Amino acid sequence: MAAPFSSKGGYRPAPLASLPPELNPAEYDASPEKRRADAERLAIRSKLKREFLVQLNNPLRAERIDNRDKLIEEGKYERPFRLA
Q1: CA distance 40 to 48
Q2: Are 49 and 41 spatial neighbours (Cβ–Cβ below 8 Å)?
Q3: Burial 10-45, CB ≥16 within 10 A → b, else e
Q4: N or C terminus of the chain: which is more exposed, having fewer CB within 10 Å?
Q5: Taking phi first (over 0 means left), then psi (-120 to 50 degrees means alpha), and beta for anything else, what does residue 75 get?
Q6: 22 — alpha (psi -120 to 50), left (phi > 0) or beta?
Q7: DSSP class of residue 37?
Q8: How is the chain split into domains, by residue range?
Q9: What is the DSSP letter of 66?
Q10: Per-residue pLDDT tens digits for 51-67
């Protein structure tokens, strides 16, 4: 039997489907501390990603960024798109 309409926008969940994340109270009723922690985590992740991409795309780069560079140079790294 279907659930009655909820007070949050009149959404009635389907019997065989879960509640969308946008309507999950644990997501949209986040505390300010959780939102601040999420924002800090996203900022750190973005900064690290940008630093890595700057190093990766530097044409004058002489050092290795990670272990995959060494394996590629030695021919030991199998790429997933390799045809042979």
Answers
A1: 12
A2: no
A3: eeeeeeeeeeeeeeeeeeeeeeeeeeeeeeeeeeee
A4: C
A5: left
A6: alpha
A7: H
A8: 30-74
A9: S
A10: 988 888 888 877 777 76
